[in-house]
Specification:
The protein is of the alpha/beta class. Helix content is 44%, strand content 16%.
Length: 262
């Protein structure tokens, strides 16, 4: 790749605002970069849809960002990563980084209780997660917890009371007193850490895969000499928002979620 691409933006997409939790980590850790974030809200949620359809819309979202000249792409959605990451890499000649539930770090952290993986139904049934599950389930007690409807509740900007009520119903059949860690297997869930802690208990650790994704992107860009060069001016982490949905509603919501995360 040519050096002029160093100053090109990084593309990030998700089915809605969940990937902004990843975008915030990118801005914090790689502040000299420029970003284009696509909220594919017209097709949200991804996590309850058919695999072939999610593959198709993920390729379309990636194509929108590729056509904007991004130098790398972050698939900031566990569901899209599960079913489409290989197809995206095959179709576009730029680095493509995906998401992975942080099951390995959760197991390595130890603890005496079970590990709960909160994710969409699609993420939990796909091969990518099941390979992880079978790799680590002999080392720890792992509970898969499908969270249908939670993404929509978060995007509705529901209050803490409504989200805690939903979570209590979700956790009601789990051995809450015997949990060590909750793994957030959907980027949306990063926005409700406090609510999850309220239900799971303050001693339960809550982790996500965002930091690992950011580190992988940084390593990849560095190896290809694609990191943005140091500038004379103060870095700003410039972000442009796009959406396939209602711009008047979605773009301001993206801006609110980003500001809450920085």
């Amino acid at each position: 790749m040519d050096n002029h691409q160093n100053t090109s933006p990084i593309g990030v997409f998700d089915s809605g605002v969940g990937g902004i939790s990843v975008l915030a980590e990118l801005v914090k850790n790689l502040p000299r970069e420029k970003y284009i974030y696509l909220a594919d809200s017209a097709n949200a949620p991804y996590g309850t849809k058919d695999c072939e359809y999610v593959r198709e819309i993920s390729l379309n979202a990636a194509g929108i960002l590729y056509d904007r000249g991004v130098k790398a792409l972050v698939v900031a959605c566990n569901s899209a990563t599960s079913v489409a990451i290989n197809n995206i890499r095959e179709q576009f000649d730029i680095p493509v980084i995906g998401m992975e539930p942080a099951l390995k770090p959760a197991v390595e952290m130890g603890g005496n209780g079970a590990i709960v993986v909160m994710a969409t139904p699609l993420t939990l049934k796909e091969e990518k997660f099941n390979n992880l599950f079978h790799k680590f389930n002999l080392e720890a007690s792992i509970i898969s917890l499908p969270c249908e409807g939670l993404m929509e509740l978060i995007e509705s900007e529901a209050g803490m009371t409504d989200i805690v009520r939903y979570l209590k119903g979700l956790f009601q059949n789990l051995p809450v007193n015997q949990l060590s860690t909750v793994v957030l297997g959907c980027t949306h869930y990063c926005f409700i850490r406090n609510e999850i802690s309220t239900v799971a208990g303050p001693a339960v650790k809550i982790i996500d895969g965002n930091t690992g994704t950011v580190r992988q992107l940084e390593r990849t860009l560095n190896s290809l000499n694609l990191l943005a060069p140091p500038g004379k001016s103060k870095p700003s982490g410039q972000v442009e928002f796009l959406t396939t949905g209602d711009r008047e509603r979605i773009i301001p919501m993206c801006e609110r979620f980003l500001q809450k995360s920085l």
